[in-house]
Give the backbone structure.
Amino acid sequence: MTRPHATAPGHPTRRFARTIAYAPDLDGAADPGEVVWTWVTYEDDITQGKDRPVLVVGRTTDDAGRTHLLGLMLSSRDYHRDDPNWLYIGSGSWDAQHRGSFVRLDRVLLVPENGIRREGAILDRRRFEVVADRLREEYGWR
């Protein structure tokens, strides 16, 4: 089932390299440093997907002037532990079961501003900077 505000499966992170800055503010608009929930399509079948948490790391505007959030997918699956494209960030209130989470670094999701189902939490600055440092070191972000 395709959702009206489905987020595409992702793009290479280097392609969207930006200046990254921590700026969370739970004001109803998603900001870098916040974990939000949105519908994300599966990479292998874009007609399907699931609602999942995404760490907001920036914004971009497309050729039509539409603003999209730049987000990194989160997962609680432990098999990501040994994958260099995933970084363990610990647990947070974005997961009702308080499971540890991993953030995917090699694929950026473009999330339409109106595609956010809800703001989930703020990732603390220390953990956000660990993610930001990896984006700077490995993917050309500033």
Q: What stands out?
A: Strands lie at 11-12, 34-41, 49-61, 67-75, 86-90, 101-104, 107-112, 116-122.
